[in-house]
Amino acid sequence: GPGKAEMYAGLQELGVANGEDLKETLTNCTEPLKAIEQFQTENGVLLPSLQYALPFLDLHGTPRLEFHQSVFDELREKLLERVSAIALEGKVEERYKKLEDLLEKSFSLVKMPSIQPVVMCVMKHLPKVPEKKLKLVMADKDLYKACAVEVKRQIWQDNQALFGDEVSPLLKQYILEKENILFSNDISFLQNFFSPSPKTRRQGEVVQKLTQMIGKNVKLYDMVLQFLRTLFLRTRNVHYCTLRAELLMSLHDLEISDICTVDPCHKFTWCLDACIREKFVDNKRARELQGFLDGVKKGQEQVLGDLSMILCDPFAINTLALSTIRHLQDLVGQDTLPRESPDLLLLLRMLSLGQGAWDMIDSQVFKEPKMEAELITRFLPLLMSFVVDDHTFTVDQKLPSEEKGPIPYPSTIPEAFTKFLQENRIACEIGLYYILHITKQRNKNAFLRLLPALVETFSDLAFSDIFLHLLTGNLTLLSDEFALEEFCTSLFDGFFLTACSRKENVHRHVLRLLLHLHHKVAPAKLESLQKALEPTKQSGEAVKELYNQLSEKLELRKPSPAEVTEAPSMELPLPTVPTPASR
After folding, report:
1. How many of the other CB atoms lie within 10 Å of CB of 247?
2. Nearest-angstrom CA–CA distance, 111 and 143
3. 3-state secondary structure 265-319
4. How far apart are CA 410 and CA 445, in angstroms?
5. DSSP one-letter code for 183
6. Which of 293, 330, 409, 543 could pair covalently with 445 via S-S, beta carbons 3.0-4.6 A apart?
7. Is 111 left (phi over 0), alpha (psi -120 to 50) or beta?
């Protein structure tokens, strides 16, 4: 427990005798028992009625300490209640004056474990704890730890470095949690990274803790946003953009208007949040979002940096990309060109603002990126032609064939498509989402046709974790195709293995996929894959661990040597099955 000195820290300043005083008295006196009695009288509870009650307790063997302790605990509870009551009653200036006086009187006892809760309670209720006291608390690790978050906020707002130390492990934890979901061993097209609703995500531990730390303090909120921007610039990790939006919406849920009204992104984020919940941008919300973008005034362009970060959140990009694919399909049915659809153009505008977030914040040049005309006049019509190819093929399959024989599925890709995926970021993003879309539809022909275009994409987007997480999930829908040599060769040799050796994350995703689908893969192919995927000296722990798990599974599948060599005899004893009673 605390040292003796610690237990009584500060009593002397208040003129209250402590153990040291008693020791001194006893050392310098002739009649110790008389001295003890006098000390008890002088320092005991000053209630006349107790004079007779205490000897009565002594008779019952109740130690004086136990009695005083229970009186003390009772008084402390009453005092804590009183402090909380003072904090709510009377005129503002008066109540804070009372609390400040109380703090002045009690602060010297803050190191006494028994009194500390009272001092902490007083500080918690003071909107401005005197600077001197805050400095003393800050200088003492234990006191700082024991402080209520209300007091810590007052310390943090003038100590960015200290606040950074508190926030940093939470941000690390957040990124780690996101990566664990992306690399999770459960692969499914039903449950993926984007399945949880925004409201559910905001209940996550890190968002809740940060919300609690910020309270209603605009200064702390700004500091957290500054940390997120800095880390996003340093790492290019888009999960920081997700946290930026989640934090704002978490404060929105709690109706903390002190902060929401001063964040210029609030209404835009709120509207986008509703779209993310539906995984679709409907016409009404599209108008609203466009209104916000068109409403950015001269001299306030800096807000574009914030909006771009909100739009760079993978959950936003996912929603915008899915909506784009849906629009393109609708346009095919309506025989309309992309450039004639204002809704589609708005989706592209928001995609490019989101995809340009890093460059904008890095360069500090706040203007919307220019949309390339080619994207709208050439690339999107190309995607629409793929949709048409699928329709035509499906219809052809159903027509009675006269002499002409089966019409083969178009197998070549227009060179322009491959070039767009390599050179244009937005085209690449939309192209990847189109490939996810046809995989989800179990359209093997279209998938194999477009797969070669993924080997080289804009800044290797086809090998990014989010895309591979979604692709592996959707590939489970094509699990029966894994028995076919041609399909496996295209998928593994033609795509995954081209990057495995240079990209650790791709290695991990392939192993995840095989752990899930190995029983569907043709044995010969599986064996060559097992060789190709063997970890090297440079491989990280995660790859080695996955590879070992896969090897164990494959070991269990192999027939034992005895079964292979002996030809099975035909006269197997029939298992005895109880005959069903004849009816």
Report:
1. 22
2. 8
3. CHHHHHHHHHHHHHCCCCHHHHHHHHHHHHCCCCCCCCHHHHHHHHHHCHHHHHH
4. 9
5. T
6. 409
7. alpha
- Residue 133 is predicted with a pLDDT of 81
Asked if 340 and 263 touch (Cβ cutoff 8 Å), the reply is no
Radius of gyration of the chain (CA): 35
Euclidean distance between CA atoms 476 and 189, whole angstroms? 7
List the end-to-end C-alpha distance of the chain, in Å, as a whole number: 81
Q: Give dist(CA 56, CA 503) in Å, integer.
A: 81
pLDDT of residue 583: 44
Q: d(Cα 495, Cα 21) in Å, to the nearest integer?
A: 83
Tell which residue, 553, 463, 466, has the closest CA to residue 504: 463
Tokens of 236: 């290019």
Per the CB < 8 A criterion, the answer to whether 226 and 220 are in contact is no
Report the candidate in 391, 396, 418 with the shortest Cα–Cα distance to residue 407: 396
How far is C-alpha 274 from the geometric centre of its chain's CA atoms? 19
Collect contacts of 11-17 with beta carbons under 8 A, ≥24 apart. Answer: 11/109, 11/112, 13/108, 14/105, 14/108, 14/109, 16/43, 17/42, 17/43
Residue in the block written with tokens 């950015």: 296
* Contacts (Cβ under 8 Å, ≥6 apart) of 555: none
Please give the C-alpha separations between residue 480 and each of 172, 436, 518, in angstroms, as whole numbers: 40, 18, 11
Residue type, 560: S
Question: Torsion angle of alpha carbons 44, 49, 52, 55, nearest 10°?
Answer: -40
d(CA 320, CA 282): 11
Write out residues in the chain with pLDDT < 50, as ranges. 567, 569, 582-583
As given in the structure block, the two tokens for residue 460 are: 């290797």
C-beta neighbour count of 480 within 10 angstroms: 11
What backbone torsions phi and psi does residue 184 show, to the nearest 5 degrees?
A: -60, 150
Structure tokens at 521: 């893969």
What is the amino acid identity at position 96?
Answer: Y
> Exposed, middle or buried, 46 (CB in 10 Å: 0-12/13-18/19+)?
exposed
